[in-house]
Task: structure prediction
Amino acid sequence: MNLKPLGDRVIIKQDEAETTTASGLFIAGDAKEKPQTGTVLAVGPGKMDKDGKNLPMPVKKGDRVVYSKYGGNEVLDGDEEVLIVRADDIYAIIG
Result:
């Protein structure tokens, strides 16, 4: 990975979109909804408090997370598409 997140930002590899419904019907490419889950690839050092100390990050590399549907920016890292979000846009750690 060529990207290193700054501040309280987190780089996430999004899970793949579902290609079929629960009943087995195929979903067209345009109708697929992007998942709101993924795996943390990298974590920044954290926000600074008023005294200049880094606050601890709530997630770590390898965590599976649920994040805001409209949070973050999609960017290419080489040939891989990743999402950069703020720690505040992460709602939960899975499992």
